[in-house]
Specification:
Length: 297
């Protein structure tokens, strides 16, 4: 595997387990120093910070329940982690440890003054992604100021992967969004519905006796008890909903490429009948593309 670091220029190498969407798999042998024994893992090298060369892009994606942090080298994810959406100590750690060139922040909640102060103190430029930020798509939404930056980023990530195609982007997290981008690169709009956990919670809170059921567990064709009936109803119901959208858009526009992302991507992808491209890091990839669009030096 080729390293992104150059040891002749003072970089030290660090092996790190990264995202599962990379295509290179190495089999690690009996490695006592890391406690890994013969497992197939995705590996990449990271660079310790060199003040003469900052090469990495920092992506911060703040959701309703958690914040996700990514380091990109060009278009490739080399490191990522998830934290509570009020915990940002990782910014100090990564700023000291890695050669970060620039950063972008997308948030679906209000950015606190504490976080704003921390972002301003970072030793590299930071974009707060908003509706004035340059993006490689046109927006055909009636109220662009109300359009979530996470939805725009997912659309950009899909467009980067398949430009010039009709795209349907389904992001299933706290809420599920279904957004359409036409082949001319215009975000035409979309729909918003409750996500998996919200539906499970609603069934419990708005009824007298239905239990709160985890999305993890047995899925059957028909529920054979209350727990499986609820889990089946929610997860399979969403999958039928998605299949219905795909059928409708294919009928109206011809071939439409479908991208599935979000926290429930893993839960849903194997139960959707239609052909889809599942990519849990689509929003991060879109944010990285937007960052490059604005800092294309």
């Amino acid at each position: 595997m080729q390293s992104i670091c150059n040891t002749q220029k003072g970089y030290s190498l660090h092996k790190y387990i990264i995202s599962r969407d990379l295509l290179t798999f190495l089999t690690i042998g009996n490695n006592k120093s890391t406690g890994i024994f013969g497992r197939k893992l995705n590996l990449q090298y990271l660079c310790r910070k060199n003040t003469n060369r900052q090469t990495l892009n920092l992506i911060i994606d703040i959701g309703n329940n958690s914040a996700k942090f990514f380091l990109f080298n060009g278009n490739q994810i080399v490191l990522h982690t998830r934290r509570a959406n009020d915990s940002y100590d990782i910014l100090d750690e990564w700023s000291l440890e890695y050669g970060i060139r620039q950063a972008i922040v997308s948030s679906v909640i209000d950015i606190t003054s504490e976080l704003a102060d921390k972002l301003m103190s970072l030793p590299f430029p930071v974009i707060i992604f908003g509706h004035g930020t340059k993006i490689p798509l046109k927006i055909g939404y009636r109220t662009p100021d109300t359009l979530g930056t996470d939805r725009i980023a997912a659309a950009v990530g899909a467009w980067e992967a398949a430009p010039g195609k009709h795209l349907l982007v389904i992001d299933s997290g706290t809420a599920m969004t279904v957004d359409f981008i036409d082949r001319d690169g215009t975000f035409r709009g979309g729909n918003i519905a409750p996500g998996v956990k919200m539906r499970l919670k609603a069934l419990h809170e708005y009824t007298g006796r239905l239990p709160l059921v985890s999305k993890e567990g047995e899925l059957t064709h028909l529920g054979h008890d209350t727990e499986t009936a609820i889990r089946n109803g929610v997860i399979k119901g969403i999958c039928h909903e998605i299949d219905g959208y795909i059928e409708d858009f294919n009928r109206k526009y011809g071939e439409v490429l479908v991208f599935l992302t979000g926290g429930d991507e893993k839960t849903l992808k194997n139960h959707i009948k239609s052909r889809i491209f599942a990519d849990r890091y689509l929003v991060a990839k879109g944010l990285n593309r937007i960052l490059l669009e604005n800092y294309n030096e």
